[in-house]
Amino acid sequence: WSQVCRLNFTMKVFRGTLVHCRVPEKIEILPDHLIGFDEARQGQILFVERCSDLEQQAETHGFDLASVHSLAEGQFLLPGFVDTHIHAPQYKNTGTGYDRMLLEWLRHYTFPTEARFEDLEVAKQLYPMVVRRTLRNGTTTASYFATIHLPASQELCKVIAELGQRAFVGKVNMDRESPEYYVEETQQSLDDTRRFVEYVQAMKNPLVQPILTPRFPISCSPALLRGLGELASETGVRVQSHLCEQKPEVEFILRLFPDHSHCASIFEKNKLFGDKALMAHCVHLEEEDLELVKRNGVGVAHCPTSNLCICSGIMDARRVLQEGIVKIGLGTDVSGGFSPSLLEVMRAAVHSSKALSFSKPEGYTAISHHEALYMATLGGARVLTIDDRIGNFEVGKEFDALLIDTRAPLPFPVFDTFEQDTMDVSKGD
Questions:
Q1: What pLDDT digit, counting tens, does each position of 192-214 carry?
Q2: Fewer CB within 10 Å: C terminus or N terminus of the chain?
Q3: pTM to 2 decimals?
Q4: C-beta of residue 391 within 8 angstroms of C-beta of residue 378
Q5: What is the CA radius of gyration of the chain?
């Protein structure tokens, strides 16, 4: 009886191989480990240790041996993927419309699609599809752009809460340089954004949080940016936007803001930079831009599939990492990117970095698969300033994980394995 009383009946324990990152340059593979977490405390991880004496460990940590879930051969646990940049309303356009560059792409494909969300029924039909699809691709956390429409943006939050994803959701702000059918009045944009923030906070769902979302300086007047900066300072809500995605975009922005010589300074001046801000793309950062990003602790959402699909360029992820900016994550940027899968984005991050290395001096090193996995997990968590909660399997964080089964029964094998394949880190990668 005394032993039973010491058992934690809300504890769950897995035994098997864990794979995660603590630093950008190294994947840690932990074979035959125990990981225990408490479901009653938001899945807080209580212990992670090598399985040695299971009976003694059960006594020490207070779990029932019969409750241990042992992973099968070919299975391992991986931290959930973090998509730091995705446009939920653009999901229906995924994989299409790559014949135009950004500004024309927005007007020809994206704005007409997003404008349809004025009809709430469109949101109710599409948003469950995109959230389910991202979850099926292993994205347990996402930072979403919605549209300018308050009811549809609220609907996205409802869907996310119902499906159990962790997410940051932004009602987009646009009050100029936009089509007549898809634009806001400045004060209305600010008022609706405040209502949206209050609505999400009133949900009291720890997994769903608001994020201020000025689309980019082209579509936001100085008054709108100033008002959003004041709202950010007042509420402490995070900020997301696009920064230096394409050269014509940068040139247009600097014409609209002639008192600025760099795009990053526009955000800084309007109090939209800081450790709770994240900027997508960052392909064409000047040294001054990069210094402002670094100095303000801004996170970078690297979107290599999108950068290639709409011909933005190749973001130098190695340069960002060498600057000591560890707050760099990955974004699918649907529908600029052709897939909602962060696995695809990880591959593209490595491949594009290798392609960039061809034009670099000798000694330049492309990013590795270690750094790509870091960016898809812990790096993304750092971008969203939730690395104290998720991103890897450190004690005290929440158990946010994927069960990877390399031998899952499917109509056809996803890949083949061979005798020499191993999870033994001592035998190489």
A1: 999 999 999 999 999 999 999 99
A2: N
A3: 0.96
A4: yes
A5: 22
